[in-house]
Design a protein that fits this description.
This protein has eight helices and ten strands. Bound molecules: 2-amino-2-deoxy-6-O-phosphono-alpha-D-glucopyranose. 2-amino-2-deoxy-6-O-phosphono-alpha-D-glucopyranose (GLP) binds next to strand 6.
């Protein structure tokens, strides 16, 4: 993992956007797997600006969702699908046939199986954008005694249920749906964004370099092509 300290959120977002754009320019139909949350919203804003000035850039881009809150409908504003529609699919002009969402209309285990099949058909992921959860999670791969390699139903920790997206929901979700650690690590290139209030401790643990299931993001140290952009505010 290559660590790049950035001077504030705007710089971090601009540097992330430059990297993603370079990847898209190299491979127009790349498969992008984007996280939700506040860490990447600046990056998505930057990408939206690029789409405004270059309508062709994202014409073939494909997107597959990293995770989803259990029990939410795709039409719910607080869902991953709702978030991605507003910030990426709409602004970048991603047509429905180029977007793969978690299906929350079926049983959770069926949704995981379907996502697994779709990933096998469409993947591997070319670019995976991750945020660092306050407890060290990536996607909904939560700190546990063991990691799940594939798409799974995730138990959500108390910290995760305090996330702004969950707090806005009428009813807190009982579980999460997420790609597993092995599917994330199979991505060709991973961009990890470390920014946000209260992330000092988890950032320090991650940068310590020890790989442990108590800090799922630490598995990214095992991948040969990860850029970790860290906001200096959390260092
Ligand atoms: C959420 C999402 C993740 C996200 C993470 C960090 O629970 N499931 O995909 O990356 O937490 O969120 P934030 O960037 O808002 O700190």
């Amino acid at each position: 993992m290559h660590v790049f300290p950035c001077e504030g959120y705007e710089r971090l977002s601009a540097q992330a956007a430059a990297r993603v754009t370079a990847e898209v320019e190299r491979k127009r139909d790349l498969l992008l797997c984007p996280a939700t949350g506040s860490s990447p919203t600046g990056l998505y804003r930057e990408l939206a600006k690029r789409a405004e000035s270059n309508a062709d850039l994202f014409r073939s881009l494909r997107i597959i969702a990293l995770d989803e809150w259990g029990g939410l409908k795709a039409t719910d504003h607080g869902s991953t699908t709702g978030y991605l529609k507003e910030r990426l699919l709409g602004p970048l002009g991603i047509s429905a046939d180029r977007f793969t969402a978690w299906n929350t209309d079926v049983e959770a285990s069926t949704a995981c199986g379907r996502m697994q099949d779709q990933l096998a058909r469409l993947g591997p992921i070319d670019v995976c954008i991750l945020g660092l959860g306050i407890n060290g999670h990536i996607g909904f791969n939560e700190p546990r005694p063991a990691m799940m390699p594939h798409c799974h139903i995730a138990y959500l920790s108390e910290e995760t249920l305090r996330h702004a997206m969950a707090r806005e929901m009428k009813q807190p979700p009982d579980f999460g749906l997420t790609l597993g650690i092995s599917e994330i690590l199979a991505a060709r290139y991973i961009l990890l964004l470390v920014t946000g209030e209260g992330k000092e401790q988890v950032a320090a643990r991650l940068l310590g370099g020890e790989v442990t299931t108590a800090l799922p993001a630490s598995f990214l140290w095992l991948h040969a092509n990860v850029d970790c952009l860290v906001d200096r505010a959390v260092l």
